[in-house]
Amino acid sequence: MEQNIVIRVATPEDKKYAETITNEMESSAKARGTGIAKRSPEYISQKIEEGKAVIAVTNEGTWVGFCYIETWEGEYVANSGLIVSPDFRKSGVAKAIKERIFKLSREKYPEAKIFGLTTGLAVMKINSDLGYEPVTYSELTQDEKFWAGCKSCVNYDILMSKERKNCLCTAMLYDPKDHYQPQETSEHFEKKSKVYERLLKIKQSKFLKRLRGIEKNNSDRNTNRKLKMSLFNFFHF
């Protein structure tokens, strides 16, 4: 990571970056062809005001990256909206932001379960390094307000067709009362990363075909059985 980048808890003065942040969130989601819950500049500003956001900027004041905290049911915390400016990607900034927002979450809500949804292996790797584990959707908050945030995602129809039990995103969770050590989750991810990359591709293909109403042939059914077995092996250490 570049030495002139500062990663810190956002302050009210950082609200000037809110529109830039939301614009980049939207354009990044479109470029990936995947979804992200759309947020307004006002919402981002609110998170900054509440001290529930981490921002990365250069010493010259150029915006670099951002992430914020959401809370659900008083028991769950989500580190949401991770975004890095295209000019600073693949520099280690995303990992540093995730580490700082995770630390802030633990400071503010030491008893809460911290979770996230992601479609990317890079974020899964970062989460694994922090001690997150892949889980089923049933282990996440069931707060309707959280799931309502998925309505602006391009994959919302897939989520609802699966009765909110699955989608293209992978769910990951850190439970302060019951968790593996970061070294264990990190090593586990390294061992399974190639398998999981394939599973994500199969999962995306299956869900999109189902959404379009394409019937499965015998080959698809065989793939489905293999997918279920691989997921079982992946989710259980």
Automatic annotation (TrEMBL):
GO molecular function, one term: acyltransferase activity, transferring groups other than amino-acyl groups
Highest taxon in the source lineage: Bacteria
One Pfam family here: Acetyltransf_1
Positions of the N-acetyltransferase domain: 5-165
Xref: InterPro entries: Acyl_CoA_acyltransferase, GNAT_dom
Name of the protein described by the UniProt record: N-acetylglutamate synthase, GNAT family
Provenance organism: Flavisolibacter ginsengisoli DSM 18119
